[in-house]
Amino acid sequence: MHPISHGKNIVREVRMAHQSGIMFSIIDNRMGAYPSECVERFVTLALSCCHDKQEKRPSIQGCGQGTGNHTQNDARS
């Protein structure tokens, strides 16, 4: 894994990795093991929160629904 270095736009880097199917290469392995579908949902939600147009971003309520309200222990099971 190569860290995202200074001067790069983190949203652009994550979006490109996600679209290219290599998002796991940019995730810090110190995070531990999580099911790929949980990481996919989280990254999709995070990117939707970074949309350029405010009206395209989810509400806080929508964010809670998007995560499925799982606890850290649920996600690691």
Automatic annotation (TrEMBL):
Residues 54-77 are annotated as: Disordered. Residues 68-77 have a biased composition (Polar residues). This is Uncharacterized protein.
